[in-house]
Design a protein that fits this description.
Helices cover about 10% and strands about 40% of the residues. The strands form seven sheets. It has a seven-stranded mixed beta sheet. Strands 4-5-6-7 form a four-stranded antiparallel beta sheet, with no helix packed on it. With about 230 residues, it is mainly beta. Strand 2 and strand 3 form a beta hairpin.
Length: about 230
């Protein structure tokens, strides 16, 4: 994404697999159209803006996805596969630094309402529990950070690492009990001593993923105009 974030969705809805292409800009973010119906979807929350499927309640389901700098990802996943460079598409690749200041006029002109509570390109971890949303500035994280919080009445554990441009959140409830979490030597540990992976797993257990991903502030605020900002 141009807004320094990556979001993944399950492309299958009611047994139908949808395929997508970039369709333009809305609220400073790319939108996409599906090849089956031509409907235009946001790539931010998986909902439909216009087209034959608009108003039907059809939506993509967001998936948990770890976004990190390459050095950190490959350290934990040394056998990972990498998408091959295609020379014929070289004009579509460019080097970017997450959170780089500045928005082009072509992006600004599509933003319905620019939220000025934070600088537009500030990197935040956006968390949406369905009952509330909150933005956490990555710059406020002192290295690898794990914190307990409550968003919209839902207890959550928030994990951030500004150096790796990483952030994710999970519900903090395990077997019906709210756990407290902290950072220990770059790991996520709960108050019973159990160590959890960055993907929210340990052994056969899995923390429930809460919609969360890193984004530049302008993008998160555009789709979450009532979002709170974590202040410590």
């Amino acid at each position: 994404m141009i807004c320094s974030s990556g979001v993944g969705f399950d492309p299958v809805i009611d047994g139908t697999r949808y395929m997508f292409d970039v369709a333009g800009l809305y609220n400073g973010l790319f939108v996409m159209s599906d090849r089956l119906t031509g409907s235009v979807w946001t790539h931010y929350d998986g909902t439909i803006l216009t087209g034959p499927l608009a108003g039907t309640g059809t939506a993509l389901t967001i998936q948990s996805m770890l976004q990190q700098r390459w050095r950190d990802w490959v350290a934990d996943h040394p056998d990972t596969s990498v998408l091959a460079w295609e020379d014929r598409y070289s004009d579509r690749y460019w080097s970017v630094e997450p959170g780089r200041p500045g928005l082009g006029r072509e992006f600004l002109d599509t933003i319905v309402s620019l939220d000025t509570r934070l600088p537009e390109n500030d990197l935040v971890l956006g968390v949406d529990t369905g009952t509330g949303s909150r933005a956490y500035r990555l710059a406020d994280a002192a290295g690898f950070t794990v914190m307990d919080d409550e968003v919209g009445g839902v207890p959550v554990v928030v994990v951030m690492d500004a150096g790796s441009v990483f952030g994710i959140a999970f519900e903090a409830t395990v077997d019906g009990e709210v756990r407290s979490f902290s950072a220990l030597d770059g790991r996520v540990v709960d108050d019973t001593g159990v160590v959890w992976g960055l993907d929210g797993t340990t052994g056969g257990a899995q923390l429930r993923f809460v919609t969360s991903f890193v984004s530049e502030w302008y993008g998160w605020a555009a789709y979450h105009p009532d979002t709170e900002i974590w202040s410590g």
